[in-house]
Design goal:
With about 300 residues, this protein is an alpha/beta fold. It is built from 13 helices and 10 strands. The strands form 2 sheets. It has an 8-stranded parallel β-sheet with strand order 7-5-4-3-2-1-10-9. Strands 6-8 form a two-stranded parallel ribbon. Bound molecules: glyceraldehyde-3-phosphate and zinc ion. Zinc ion binds near residues 181 and 215.
């Protein structure tokens, strides 16, 4: 079975990116897994601190492990946006494949100091775990926002990126390159798109020798995604788009069957609704099926 490190290396060689989708229930997990399995591409599922608290840290790990083993399929698990060493250690002990250690809200010197310590501590629990560090400002909350925050002062420079990676020893870097967590209402309606600073991504890639993650993927222009992946993005995070599809699918299913009370009869259309979004993003990140099947 391939490791996540192998999968990221192959993605870099093939010029594709690994899709990362956040989950907080079994509907989302099934939808993402079904989409990846149908397209035969590796996939990462992520759970932030809130998502983990809802599902249970060890319970999510057990579910993902059981899918990986039963179907011999490269599905990996990431502890997304983890803000303390204690929570990161909990995830590492539960068997997560990767951890986003996110102290990007702290002054950069403090972020460097604590991330460096966390890399050592987490690798002592599992030497093959991958640690992602974050710098810059991409806002918070995979939700629908009323207005866009001004993130222009928090963009990552190539020099900051190089220094951060060298000083901390992180395996993966998440920079701020015009991306933003969550979606504006206009994006949910499909009337506006996020745009990325492709030149900045390329310059950061030249400055660091590690894989790059693009957070805040929901609502991003398709062509910007393609160019960002060509410029060096290896993982793309999508959350809000799945949450919107989950809610719409649930509302539609309940409206169609107002008297139904059986969860396994109400929820399949919700899985379909989420699967459609995850599948279309996975096709885009993996070269619209033009690249040889990865799995
Ligand atoms: O870590 C999660 C993501 O960065 C998701 O961002 O909700 O804008 O897709 P998004
Ligand atoms: Zn994120």
């Amino acid at each position: 079975m391939q490791t996540l490190r192998d999968v990221l290396q192959q993605a870099q060689q093939r010029g594709v990116a690994v899709g990362h989708f956040n989950i907080s229930d079994l509907v989302l997990l099934k939808a993402v897994f079904d989409a990846a399995q149908e397209l035969r591409v590796p996939v990462l599922v992520g759970a932030s601190e809130g998502e983990r608290a809802f599902m249970g840290v060890r319970q999510i790990a057990a579910l993902v492990k059981s899918l990986r083993e039963e179907f011999n399929f490269p599905i990996f698990l990431n502890a997304d946006h983890t803000h303390s060493l204690a929570k990161a250690e909990e995830a590492a002990k539960a068997g997560f494949d990767a951890i986003v250690f996110d102290l990007s809200a702290l002054p950069v010197e403090e972020n460097v100091r604590q991330t460096k310590e966390a890399v050592v501590a987490l690798k002592s629990i599992n030497p093959s775990i991958l640690i992602e560090g974050e710098i810059g400002d991409i806002g918070t909350g995979s939700e629908i926002h009323e207005s866009a925050p001004d993130l222009s002062k928090g963009l990552t420079t190539p020099e900051e990126a190089r220094q951060f990676v060298e000083a901390t020893g992180v395996d993966i870097l998440a920079p701020a390159v015009g991306n933003m967590h969550g979606m504006l209402r206009s994006m949910v309606r499909g009337e506006a798109k996020k745009h990325l600073d492709i030149e900045r991504i390329a310059a950061i890639k030249r400055a660091v020798g590690v894989p790059l993650t693009l957070h805040g993927g929901s609502g991003t222009d398709d062509d910007d995604f393609r160019r960002a992946i060509q410029a060096g993005i290896n993982i793309v995070h999508i959350n809000t788009e799945l949450r919107v599809a989950w809610r719409r699918g649930l509302e539609g299913s309940l409206a169609k069957k107002p008297d139904e009370v059986v969860p396994y009869k109400i929820l399949p259309p919700v899985i379909e609704s989420v699967k459609e979004v995850a599948g279309s993003r996975l096709r885009l990140f993996n070269g619209n099926g033009l690249i040889a099947r990865a799995v």
